[in-house]
Amino acid sequence: MKFHHVCGEAVRISDDYKSASRSDHSFSHGIVFCDAPIKLNQHVSLELKCTSLWSGALRIGVTSQNPNTLHSSDLPKYAFPDLAQKEGYWVRPVNENETFTGMKIIIYINAIGQLHLFMNNQHRGVYISNLPTNQNLWLLFDLYGTTKAITLVPSVNAFNSEVVSTTNQSQ
What we know:
About 5% of the residues lie in helices and about 35% in strands. With about 170 residues, it is mainly β. The chain has a single domain, classed as SPRY domain (Jelly Rolls), CATH 2.60.120. A 7-stranded antiparallel sheet has the order 2-3-12-5-8-9-10, with no helix packed on it. The chain is globular and about 40 Å long. It starts with a strand and ends with a helix.
């Protein structure tokens, strides 16, 4: 998985499309997409880099809109609430008090359309529900506020596999 070249005007994509960083001069215009649809139960891992210059934090979501059909100039300032109010977009903010530089986030979508979130190996539960599993979904992130950069990192089962299997069976 890599980041897509379509991104917010304050974002710079680097490291072979594995890192996305936002300008120090802005707390907004930080929307980034992954370059391919996420597969069901595919674990996507990222590491955060934060700043104390602003307030608010990362927004996490998905879209059924193929980023290839979008233009950077058409992206709004914010994923939440701007994109979240549009059809085909599902976005939620992460609590600013729970983010810090070096934090690892793992995301996956299960077969019943639930996006699960792990933050530093702790399962935070279903973060977004009722996602359509019968269509392609691309991950999207908004490097908002204190979130300066995100880097896609190899997905290791850093969390307890029993939690995942129990979660998949019970939900």
